[in-house]
UniProtKB/TrEMBL annotation:
Protein name according to UniProt: Universal stress protein
Pfam families: Usp
Domain UspA: 1-146
Family according to the record: Belongs to the universal stress protein A family.
InterPro entries in the record: Universal_stress_UspA (IPR006015), UspA (IPR006016)
Lineage: Bacteria, Pseudomonadati, Bacteroidota, Flavobacteriia, Flavobacteriales
Gene3D superfamilies listed in its UniProt record: 3.40.50.12370
Lineage: superkingdom: Bacteria
PANTHER family linked to this entry: SENSOR PROTEIN KDPD-RELATED, STRESS RESPONSE PROTEIN NHAX
TM spans (from-to): none
Length: 282
């Protein structure tokens, strides 16, 4: 059985991510934990003053979210009665990533699913979006679903290796499971932005990846000092994939500001589902 955390803010992008997750895990025994997080700064004293005086603090802060979550859970149960799915729900009032980390530990979560609208800006560059905060602060694989994207069988997977990413065995189990289930081809894009790799190193890396997937075709392409977003876009036009995969590395605030890591660019520009694996140091 898989334990999967479905984050929701009751928006269309969340609903779409849930729909994708259900189709992605068809014919599997799964427990889906629907979770809504009421962020601390979103409630003011004015909100509490207009609440029903007979309500306790928990009801005043979380009552509306609990009602919406109950309705969402009932709708999903009805839609997927033929699947071996179990639905549970949780509402928390906490710092966003703290609440998610607690859920990951308590429910033994193996995958987090969230929707994104790909918005960018100066504030997001510094403080990062909710999705990027999850990726950087929660030690669990994350499946990011861009708004409006419908499920397609991942017959081809675009595996991205950024300049600071070394292919290693640990942390790859989610990818191995997906490739086996869908019999996917793997298209590796090695991005050597500002980092020199000898041809023999690339050749050896290709062989190591192929060992993981002996029954699946693995193609390997090297791009030296090219804009990663542009590389991905062009490759997607010539060899369309239905899923992107990359590994995330833990970084401090200052490291994110001064690093050349392309994680934010890739997440915010992605037009297909993106699976973020955890690196070996997580």
């Amino acid at each position: 059985m898989k334990n999967i955390l479905l984050l929701t803010d009751f928006s269309s992008k969340s609903d779409n991510a849930h729909k994708y997750a259900m189709q992605f895990h068809k014919w599997q025994q799964c427990t889906f934990y629907l979770m809504s997080i009421q962020k601390i700064w979103e409630y003011t004293m004015d909100d509490l003053m207009v609440a029903n005086p007979k309500d306790d603090l928990n009801t005043a802060l979380l009552g509306d979210n609990k009602s919406k979550l109950k309705a969402t859970k009932a709708r999903l149960r009805k839609q997927y009665t033929g699947e071996d799915f179990t639905f549970k729900s949780s509402v928390d009032y906490d710092v966003f990533t703290d609440a998610i980390n607690q859920a990951v530990n308590e429910y033994e979560i193996e995958l987090i699913v969230c929707g994104t609208d790909g918005k960018t800006g100066v504030v997001e560059t510094i403080f990062s979006s909710h999705t990027l905060r999850i990726i950087r602060k929660v030690d669990c694989p994350v499946l990011v679903i861009p708004e409006g994207v419908e499920f397609q069988k991942p017959s081809s997977i675009q595996y991205l290796l950024d300049y600071d990413d070394v292919f290693e065995m640990c942390g790859k189990e989610p990818l191995i499971q997906i490739v086996r289930k869908f019999k996917s081809n793997i298209d590796v894009l090695r991005l050597t932005f500002g980092y020199d790799m000898e041809p023999r190193e690339c050749e050896q890396e290709h062989k190591e990846i192929q060992k993981f997937f002996p029954s699946n075709p693995v193609t390997y392409h090297t791009y030296i000092d090219q804009d990663p977003v542009r590389v991905i876009q062009v490759r997607q036009q010539t060899a369309p994939a239905q899923l992107q995969v990359l590994s995330a590395h833990k970084q401090t605030f200052l490291e994110r500001i001064f690093s050349n890591s392309h994680l934010s660019q890739i997440v915010n520009s992605s037009t297909i589902p993106l699976l973020i694996l955890r690196d070996c140091n997580s």
